[in-house]
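Good morning C.,

I know you're traveling, so I'll keep this short. The sequence:
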Amino acid sequence: SLGVPVVASPTPDNRRLHTLGLGMLASTPREWREHLTRLIGDDGWRAQCAHAGREAMAGQTYEQHADRWIDAWSRTLGKQAVA
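The tokens, ready to paste straight into the viewer:
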């Protein structure tokens, strides 16, 4: 969301974010090296990745998902009151 290009391990959450357009995934040392080398050496690519990351994360804010958080907390509090 801050425009910092991301290289990440392919965990389930990182894969989900990657499908939204955030960053690059690296499974091996070679992939990490290739992605980082390109980000360091290619200003245009770095700027493009930063822009894509900001776009991908624009909808992943608390403000965009406040209703889901309220619902989750309400259900949790309701279950505690019953128990």
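Safe travels,
E.
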